[in-house]
Specification:
- Helices cover about 35% and strands about 15% of the residues.
- With about 400 residues, the protein is α/β, with parallel strands linked by helices.
- The strands form two sheets. A seven-stranded parallel sheet has the order 3-2-1-4-5-6-7, sandwiched between helices. A six-stranded parallel sheet has the order 10-9-8-11-12-13, with helices on both faces.
- Helix 5 (about 170-180) links the parallel strand 5 (about 120-125) and strand 6 (about 185-190).
- Helix 1 packs across helix 13 (about 380-390), helix 3 runs parallel beside helix 4 and helix 4 (about 105-115) packs parallel to helix 5.
- It is globular.
Length: about 400
């Protein structure tokens, strides 16, 4: 089986790490695999098994047109035609797409080619963007226009940001047409929550299955030497901190915490660090896995206050290090803690309960069971993907 994976990047960010893991496991399993990507480096994937889509200039131009005209993934025509020429030479049996947004590929050109050539397409929904006219997430905005027809979007200033025009209606109808015309397409969702949303969207005519995200358990593992702390530490980790990731909630938590707990936020920008209260320690995003594992192992709990998320790998990383997760019942977050086995679900802004749980864990009054975490491994995830690919073929 010849596999082609298409994604914005390789090895960086949660999706980039998933894509890299899929490649490595595919090669171990005896499959031929290549990755087409549009940003960054090729990570641990040999250069000869990658294809860099377009150029940095083309990506900036694509982003500029998105800002000006309110549409993304409808530019980069030349880059996409070159990509198609490369795909024809490789001639994959399976095309696994993990996101065409990110200013690097032309969605209509690519999808029409895949449909016309009857390629087996597996689309993984890492966000809701594929079935909306604009948004990657809509829960916080309490919007359900995507169920019928996206029009008059009041959040065009959110990623992928538009400065002037609201083209959500046009975007939505083009996406709907493209997906309805795609032959041999299977929708893969990293959570049951996302799968249920997909079944309410125009993707419902395609097979929809759940394949949970996975992480490298040889990297993320417990180190009890870092657990001897004088005070409990609440760790918060995100690739980018936005309002829907819950940074404001962490700031509110700091007012309740007083001197009872320490709070460490990883992934904040320099400007955000300057605005944090003095009792919150802020660290910029780190791509050093060893450093991140060390931070997990020094923590009492991971607090994930996200209001919109799919199946967050930060939760899995903490659990793999035997650190419990306290999270809101949003998106697929609750699915990561397996009915309370690996953490606790609290109501949004219930800081008193959060502090109580943190102190109980720190004092050994609350203990969690970390057996059977193999289901979180990237190998388990990859083998599930391959089984799905094989059934389609």
């Amino acid at each position: 089986m010849k596999i082609l994976i298409i994604n914005l990047g390789i090895g960086l960010g949660s999706i980039g790490k998933i894509v890299e893991s899929l490649y490595l496991e595919a090669v171990k399993s005896g499959y031929q695999c290549k990755i087409a990507y549009g940003r960054g480096t090729h990570g641990r994937v040999p250069k000869e098994d990658t294809y860099y889509i377009g150029s940095e200039f083309a990506r900036y131009l694509h982003a500029l047109f998105t800002r000006l005209f309110g549409s993304t993934s409808f530019y980069s025509r030349k880059s996409t035609r070159k990509l198609i020429n490369w795909i024809e030479q490789y001639n994959p049996d399976v095309v696994s797409i993990h996101g065409v947004y990110g200013y690097y590929v032309n969605m209509p050109i690519l999808y029409r080619y895949l449909s016309n050539n009857n390629k087996h397409v597996f689309l993984t929904l890492h966000s809701c963007w594929d079935f909306t006219g604009h948004c990657c997430h809509f829960t916080l905005n309490h919007c359900d226009k995507w169920k019928s027809d996206c029009i008059h979007c009041s959040h065009i200033d959110e990623y992928p940001r538009s400065l002037f025009f609201d083209n959500t209606k046009k975007n939505y109808r083009i996406k709907k047409e493209l997906y309805n015309n795609l032959k041999n397409c299977t929708i893969i969702c990293p959570s049951n929550w996302m799968a249920e949303l997909a079944k309410e969207s125009f993707l419902k005519n395609h097979p929809i299955i759940t394949v949970y995200n996975g992480i490298d358990l040889s990297l993320f593992k417990p180190d009890f030497r870092g657990r001897e702390r004088r005070r409990p530490l609440v760790l918060c980790v995100a690739n980018v901190w936005t309002k829907w990731k819950g940074l404001d909630d962490i700031i509110e938590l700091s007012r309740f915490a007083d001197k009872k707990i320490d709070i460490l936020v990883v992934g904040v920008k320099r400007k955000q660090i300057k605005s944090l209260p003095p009792n919150i320690i802020g660290i910029e995003k780190t791509s050093n896995t060893e450093e991140l594992v060390k931070l997990y192992n020094q923590s009492t709990i991971l607090f994930n206050p996200t209001y919109e998320d799919n199946y967050p790998t930060v939760n899995l990383e903490a659990i793999a290090c035997h650190i419990p997760v306290v999270t809101y019942d949003t998106g697929g977050c609750i699915e990561t803690i397996k009915d309370g086995k690996f953490g606790v679900v609290i109501k949004p802004k219930d800081y008193e309960t959060l502090i109580k749980i943190t102190l109980e864990v720190f004092n050994g009054q609350k203990v969690f069971d970390y057996s059977n975490i193999e289901e979180f491994s990237d190998r388990t995830m990859a083998q599930t993907y391959f089984n799905v690919f094989m059934r389609k073929n």
